[in-house]
Amino acid sequence: MIIGFTTVFAILIAVLGTALLTAAAAIAIALNGRGRARRAEAAAEAARTRAALLEGELAAQAVQLETLVAAREHERAAPGRPSLREAVALSRHGASTEELVATCRIGQGEARLIQMLYGSQRTADAESATAAH
To answer: 116, 124 in Cβ contact below 8 A?
Structure first.
């Protein structure tokens, strides 16, 4: 069986056409891959930028937290003002207004009010007599 020139030529053209189509498809896929790679790289860069911004914000929040913790520790370490409950207790045990002012570091008005509300009757009478003179 002898194959004619036309048949060989037709087969050759078909093979070359298929090769050209395959090459064109490969180029299209490669170009599409490059586009995807560029988009992926841009997305990665945007993510890195956002991460850097978030790291900065996190560092600022950490500094603020440390400041607040240090302030709270300082408040706990420093001797605080005796509470009004202590003034009430002292008043019930007969402390004078002057003693409440000195011991609890409260004002005269606060001490008098505590004396009137919670003080013993003798203390309240003595304070009223002193205030009247």
So the answer is: yes
Selected residue with higher pLDDT from 77 and 7:
7
Three-state SS sequence of 5-57: HHHHHHHHHHHHHHHHHHHHHHHHHHHHHHHHHHHHHHHHHHHHHHHHHHHHH
Residue 77: both structure tokens together: 């370490």
Q: What is the pTM of this model?
A: 0.38
What is the Cα–Cα distance from 90 to 115, expressed in whole angstroms?
10
What mean pLDDT do residues 55-80 have? 81
Among 82, 89, 80, residue whose Cα is nearest residue 114:
89
| Confidence class for position 38, pLDDT limits 50, 70, 90 | confident
Higher pLDDT, 81 or 110: 110
For residues 36 and 49, give the distance between their C-alpha atoms in angstroms, rounded to a whole number: 20
Non-local (6+) Cβ contacts of 123 within 8 A are: 91, 94, 95, 96, 115
Residue with tokens 């790291």: 55
User: What CA dihedral angle connects 73, 75, 76 and 80, to 10 degrees?
Assistant: 170
